[in-house]
Structure prediction request, 372 residues.
Amino acid sequence: MSILQGLLDNCIRDIDQVLSALGITGEEADTLRKVAKRYPVSIPPYYLNLIDPSDPEDPIRRLSVPSAVEDSVHGHEDTSGESHNTVLTGVQHKYAQTALVLTTSQCSMYCRHCFRKRMVGYTHDEVTKQILGMAEYVKAHPEINNILLSGGDAFINENDVIREYLDHLVDLPQLDYIRFGTRTPVVLPMRIYDDPELLDILREYGSHKQIYIVTHFDHPHEITEESKRAVRALIEAGCPVRNQAVLLKGVNDDPEVLAQLLNSLTSIGALPYYVFQCRPAKGVLTQFQVPLERGYEIVSKARTLCSGQAKAFRYVLSHVTGKIEILGRLGEEMVFRYHQSKYRENDERLFTMKLREDQCWLENIPGWEKHS
Ligand code: SF4
Prediction:
């Protein structure tokens, strides 16, 4: 049995085990059992141990344990237009230069705020079926200069599958780099530091093509000796690590907590890259979204507490028309800029909007109606 499979076999997937570990009983337990039927649960024992069972608002608990509001009917299945970007099953041509591959629908921990809840842990239908076909598509589109291997969690693939992806991609001269999107350093760090074969693969292929690891720490409590060790192992294997956090109600929507996260990330070598506005995904928005105006206040106050490296991130939202940076406020309006655009006419476009106090997402962006 592989190291990965041994670790996955140990993950807690039975909601009753989670409920009993946290002492959740009665009506609440019944509701959570119902939620877990639609939105599966998996928590590695390592991650479960980070929860303070005496604190119902513990941030790690909010990130990993279902809640009653998760069952809400509000929200959308595909908030960023992924179905429109899909060119082959599991392959998205996201921006002109960027391809994204859904390599798996599995994760060792199912984040309660996952924007791909429609498929993650639920259905394999959207996962790529043909690595060769994906590579041929990339070859036929020389404008693609980078590729993100995502999922699910790309490091939940066995090592021979990771090797197969890299085999097909490292020799493509058009690619400047390959990224792996993975929360494994955060939730199952021993899959990295205890698996020399994985590290050798990254070292070997990374000597031909630059590999970056895009990971996802959301709270300072996720930065432990184990997760530091995983990040260090990746860096020593030649893979720079970048972090994408999501601004989440009840987890990191406090300037001091966010600043602590961002500063700590620089100390372990996982440089802050994006802070995402939480998407209006079904099963997510009711529980986790922070209004944009408040989000901007939190992020800007956090920036004042950050070192230069720690604030080298962008506060963005992934809209169906592209990645939009939330730049600031001008009088009564908020200022935005397209950081990555799906449509050429939006490249680097600045626009302003007056938002409602409770507005968490952008609708009716000036000039986007023609693409809706
Ligand atoms: S690790 Fe990523 S893909 Fe998996 S549940 Fe968490 S956010 Fe979703």
Remarks:
- The pocket of iron/sulfur cluster is lined by residues 107, 110-111, 114, 116, 120, 151-153, 183 (CB under 6 Å).
- The two ends are 48 Å apart (CA to CA).
